[in-house]
Structure formats: structure tokens, C-alpha cells
Amino acid sequence: MNEEQYQALCKSCDRLLLAPDSGAERIAAPWLHVIRAHPIFLESYADIFGAQTGSNVSRRVRNIASALRSFFKSFTVDGPLWSCVGELPQKSDVLLVSHLVNESFPGQEGDFYYGKAAWELEGYGLSAAIALINYTEASSATLASKWRHAKIPRVIFERVLNFPAELRLYRRACSAADRLNSIADLQSSDLDRRVTARAAIEAASGGAVSALRLGDQIKALVARLQPRAIVVTYEGHSWERITFAAARAVSPGIRCIGYQHAVLFNLQHAVQRSLAHEFNPDVILTSGLVSQVSLQKNPDLKNVRIDTFGSNRSFARQPARSWRSITGEKRTCLVLPEGISSECNLLFSFSLECAQAMPNTEFIWRLHPNMDYRALVRINSAFRDLPPNVTLSASSLAEDFVRSHWALYRGSTAIVQAVMSGVCPVYLHQVGEIPLDTLYEIAELHARVIKPDDFKLLVKEARAPRVSAEAEQVQDYCEKMFTPMDTRMLAECISGKK
Fold first, then answer.
1. What is the DSSP letter of 360?
2. Helix, strand, or coil here: 237?
3. pLDDT tens string 457-497
């Protein structure tokens, strides 16, 4: 998909979301919220610009299978909306909505996304509770039990409700699908007809039902805790919008805060687009000044307060490397893929070619925590027997940074921390694709490679005369991408100050 097609797709989806007959059931469809121009996000849209028939049939089958799985599980549960240990407090000033993506997280005091903010809010006279969406295979009750001695109350949402509740959710989703089906042939352009027809299928998907289910759970939890504010991690997903509307349905005066915790990428769309009021945040708190400035420039967000909260991924700045100081040393490149199999395969394959052509250069492959190296070997057998100058990291991220001179990356946000640790960023680009560069706004200040010979030349020349000055400028930029967390700012937003 090229950039022109991407922009047309965004506009077509937005027309459906903003239409007068749009409601929560349509907003719940994840497919209609185009997140950003990354291949992994665009996979499900590719056939909109090609043949569709086979894909649409397979998606309908997928939806039926998803519904049957949920119905089958629903007969084994007695209907709780969430699991928790002990009694919830009578009231909480703020509800933080977070995520459980790893079974090692339960029992930890800090939250993966919000850090120690829930505890620090007490210093501002505010009480907090944390609600978690469970993405692991473990039961919510089992995970919740590991927080039995926690000071901050935790709620873990159930993945399936009882049968009557699940049936109601699917009926709502199917009603949205029927409505979209009825208007598909009335659309004025071929693209809009294709998008509407696909949206009708996606409105009845498991993802859409999950968003509606979470909406019901949020309603009940907000009614129980009566918070002054709700804070949700915010990237533009459908469930985030449903959460805001659900909270307002129970408590019209609640402050809805979206925490834009990640990096804003090139052509990132859904997080920057305004919908009907009930689905929008009142406040967007960003991970750093770079995102704050970018969002404040968007006229679509002129009625939204935008401030910097910061991130627990902020890194202390280390001196940028001078290539003149590494003469005679063995030079090392850290490879930083995202937690996506295709991206791991691309970056590891490229660096393997480089390693075979450059035996005096070391390459460290660092896997994202979500990835399993054995699964990658099954995808690409070339990874089974690695040359001696390629190693699979068993060290901490900070230790890998100390050992490395370059970091080869594409869309990984870990490159920000690498730069702050003094490592030189090198972006791997593929001809014909929309750039995925995490540091796209300063692309002229760092190296970009397309083929192994480009990297070989980079190592040979090392760009000593100007690399130090460039590295300082890149660090100046990255220092503003993830700033230290400012709980005072969060407290002000919860209290409605400023």
C-alpha cells in the first residue's frame, strides 16, 4: 500500500465512524480505526485495493468461530465482570486502565505503563485503583490472587461473561453489521463500497465484541468506584473510545484522560482523529514533549487539553560516542526489532548478511520480550547456525547498549533508549514502503541503509568528522521523546485544575 492509498483508506473509514448513524456498536469495530502505516497494521487492509472475495469469506468464518468459542466458554462461568482480591474501596478518585501482557507482571508493585503513579498520587490527596485487561493464558482469578497484599487495589477483567451477556453483545455487534451491509451499495465510490462491505464483516468480529464487553465492564466498575477521572492508555484503538463513552454513560462529569504512552509515528492516524464527543478524551497526556508539540499542532484536537505526563521508559543521557575513540576496537552493532515475527526476520536476515561479509564486526541480536527465538528458527532455518560474530543477547538492555556502537532498527521504540545511551542509530529501509522510522522527524541526522553494502561502507568510513555533532542533535531530540514521569501533572488533570 502506498501513501496515497493509505490516506484514502483513512478518510473512507473516518466517514463511516463520523456518519450521523454511527454509534458505539460501529465505533467498537477495531478495523475502522486505522492506527498507523506499519505493515503489521495494514495487513488486514491490503486486499481493499485488490481482490476481496476469498478474504471476506475467511473473515466471516473467523467471526463465526470466535463467537462459538466465546459462547462455549460462557457456559462455564457464573458471570463475574472482573476478578479481584478482597473488597474494593467504597470510592476511588481515579481509575487507571492498564494491561497484563506477561504472567510475570502480577505481584509487582509498579505498573508496566503507569509506573509508581498510583502510589505517588496519594501525595496529592488522591486515591487510585488499577483495572487490567488480561492478554495472558492464565485465568483472571489466578493473576489477581498474586496481588492479595498490594496497597493499590487491582481489578482484572474477565475475558468472557455469562451466556446471556455474551449473546446480548453479539446481537449488538450483528445489528451494526446489518446496518453497514444495508448501506454498502449506496456508497458513491468503489473504495467506499469496499470499505463499507468489509466494515460490515468487521463489526461482528471478536475484536468488536471484546470492545463492547469492556464497555459493559467499565460501566459497572465506574458505577462501583465513582471515580472523578479515568485514565486509559491511548493509541487510537476502538476499545479506548468505547471506554470513554461507557464511563460517561454512568458518570457524565467524569474526566476522560488518554495516556499516549508510546512514540507518535509517521502518518499515525487514529490517535489524532476526533470523533463524536462521548468517544473523545478530555485530556491527552503524552510520553514526552515531542508528542505534545505534534498533537498540539493538530486542529482536530483544538478542544482537547494536551500536556506531558512522561514515561517510565525515560533514560539518563550518556555521552554520545565519538567514532574517533574506537579506532582499533572491535565494533559492535545491536539489532533491535519490534516484537513482530516479520520484522525480526527482516532485521536478522539483513544483519546476518552483513555479519558474513564483515567478520570483524560483532552483531548482537536482541529479541523483544514477546518473541521466541525457536519460533523464528522455524520461520527461517538460516538462523539455526549463526556465525561466531552473531550472538543472541542474554544481557540486560543497558548492558547491550554499553557494548554497542550502532543500533540497527526500524520501528522499535527501544532505539530512543539506545540513542540516550550513546549508541548511533541506523535505520533499515525497504524500497517502496512507507517509512517506519521511529526517528522519522530527524531522518537527515542519522544513517539509513538499504543493502548490506551500505552498512559495510558506514562502518568503514565511520563518518568521524561530523558524527559527534549529529549524535548530540539526535540525543537532544530523543531526550524529549520520553521524559521522566510527572505525577503532579496527572494529579492536576484528575482534579480538573489548569
1. T
2. coil
3. 888 776 544 455 677 889 999 999 999 999 999 999 998 86
User: H or E segment at 154?
Assistant: strand 154-157
Residue with cell 487490567: 132
CA angle 38, 42, 48 (to 5 degrees): 150
CA–CA separation, 50 and 242 (whole Å): 31
Looking at residue 150, its pLDDT comes to 84
- Beta strands 406-409 and 331-336: pairing type? parallel
The grid cell for 223 is 458505577
Torsion of Cα atoms, 219 then 221 then 223 then 224, to 10°: 160
Q: What is the rounded CA–CA span in Å between residue 428 and residue 353?
A: 13
pLDDT in tens, 210-265: 999 999 999 999 999 999 999 999 999 999 999 999 999 999 999 999 999 988 99
Q: How far apart are CA 415 and CA 425, in angstroms?
A: 7
- Give the Å distances, CA to CA, from 415 to 51, 293, 424, 440: 37, 20, 9, 12
Which domains occur in the chain, in start order? 3-77+162-311+486-495 (no CATH), 323-478 (3.40.50.2000)
DSSP state of 24: H
What distance lies between CA 18 and its chain's CA centroid? 23
Tell me the mean pLDDT in the region 441-457. Answer: 91
Give the ranges where 139-266 is alpha helix by DSSP (H): 140-145, 163-184, 190-202, 206-225, 238-250
CB hemisphere CA count around 60 (13 angstroms): 10
Cα–Cα distance for residue pair 180/187, rounded to 1 Å: 11
Count each helix (H run) and each strand (E run) in the chain, helices first: 18, 14
> Using the 8-state DSSP alphabet, how is residue 478 labeled?
H
